[in-house]
Design goal:
Elements lengths: L8 E7 L7 E6 L8 E10 L2 H7 L9 E2 L3 E9 L11 E3 L3 E2 L6 H4 L13 E2 L11 E5 L4 E2 L6 H21 L6 E5 L4 H12 L3 E6 L2 H9 L4 E4 L4 H10 L6 E6 L6 H8 E9 L10 H5 L4 E4 L6 H15 L5 E5 L4 H10 L5 E5 L2 H10 L4
Parallel strand pairs: 11-12, 11-14, 12-13, 14-15, 15-16, 17-18
Antiparallel strand pairs: 1-2, 1-4, 3-5, 3-9, 3-18, 5-6, 6-10, 7-8
């Protein structure tokens, strides 16, 4: 069914074959809306490490699939059961799409609803995502963007932001306690440093790249350690700043093969390591679990996804959290963004400005050149 002022077709960057570059296809605009759908005119979308996993076939994604699970835009149409959004709202798209509503996770505590095994999909992972001029999002998982938060900041928050925020929520730390971020200088890590600092935590940032170490430091890490000095020396340095105990909790953001083991070694006895990265295997020496009682907690996006997303975006606005972005203009610039990301030289997040006119106007309203 046609929607006023919405074109019948749109441009989308899609995975059409595993381990091949994105294809740019003209596809029908999704104008048939389900009960809780939002149709967004996409303003900005961003690149995540998970996108490379989708392209590699890790999730057995049905192809073709429009890429990117980090997107935001303006509401141009709403499903019949949507009550808490209206046309014109600025929205960060939540990743889960169309939960079943009747499984134990959907009917259970809010912490677990996003684990629904009967989801229609995760945007940009197992169903169409944000590398397009328009996208569908589930209103029950999506959040209104505060007026003071730009689209360029909001897009990376849809995954990188809420995922590292969720890791900190799962860690359950109090102001004054110490957290280690293993992979502190990446897209998630530099946001984690800023969040943790604003929450009053002491931060140990660990990375294995010069630009990553610099970004962790500039993002608020109190202590920055180069992982390339080796596990034993990293642990020694951490013990120097924690009275020999280790950190209260560690978040593993890096998917390096030894990252999880390092994170556990940094953590105090009976402490918790939060596993966020998604390497093929998570390998930890048995003595960390058995003799030191380190608990490993896997963290997917965030518990209480809707309410924590709103809380995070308000926190971003209140504490002026910033995203180190590498902007590219127009969907057809995505291959250059992917090339930079895969080179290992990208500091922060790669973002694609899809609605260039709107972003220019947004900057003009804020007095930014």
């Amino acid at each position: 069914m046609a929607i006023e002022d919405v074109p019948d077709n749109m441009l989308a960057a899609q995975v059409i074959q595993y381990n091949e570059p994105y294809a740019f296809n003209t596809v029908p605009t999704p104008t048939s809306l389900s009960e809780y759908d939002l149709l967004l005119k996409v303003k900005v979308a961003s690149l995540c490490h998970t996108d490379s996993m989708v392209s590699a076939g890790t999730f057995s994604t049905k192809l073709p699939c429009t890429a990117s699970h980090e997107g935001c835009g303006e509401v141009v149409a709403l499903g019949p059961s949507v009550k808490d959004f209206q046309k014109g709202d600025r929205v960060m798209a939540g990743i889960p799409y169309n939960r079943c509503g009747h499984c134990p996770d959907c009917l259970g505590p809010a912490e677990f609803k996003h684990y629904c095994p009967n989801l229609e999909g995760h945007l940009g992972v197992t169903t169409h995502g944000a590398f397009a001029e328009y996208m569908l999002a589930d209103a029950r998982e999506s959040s209104r963007i505060p007026d003071t938060v730009t689209y360029e900041t909001a897009a990376p928050m849809a995954c990188a932001g809420i995922t590292i925020w969720g890791g900190l929520v799962n860690a359950g730390l109090k102001a004054g306690e110490t957290v280690a971020l293993v992979g502190a200088g990446g897209g998630l890590g530099h946001l984690g440093c800023q969040f943790a600092k604003a929450l009053g935590l002491q931060i140990v940032g660990i990375d294995a790249r010069d630009q990553g170490l610099d970004l962790a430091r500039s993002s608020g890490a109190h202590v920055v350690i180069d992982a390339r000095i080796g596990k034993e020396k990293v642990v020694e340095e951490v013990h120097k700043v924690t009275d020999g105990k280790g950190v209260d909790s560690a978040l593993t953001i890096s998917d390096a093969p030894d990252a999880a083991a390092l994170a556990c070694a940094l953590t105090k006895m009976h402490g918790t390591m939060i596993q966020i990265a998604q390497p093929p295997e998570v390998s930890v020496p048995f003595h960390e679990l058995i003799f030191r009682d380190i608990r490993i907690h896997g963290s997917l996006i965030s518990p209480r996804l809707k309410s924590e997303s709103i809380r995070m975006l308000d926190f971003v606005a209140d504490h002026r959290i910033t995203v180190k972005t590498n902007p590219f203009f127009g969907l057809k610039e995505i291959p250059h963004m992917v090339e930079l990301a895969h080179s290992g030289k990208m500091a922060g997040k790669g973002v694609v400005i899809i609605d260039e006119d709107e972003i220019r106007k947004e900057k003009e309203r804020r007095g930014v050149s």
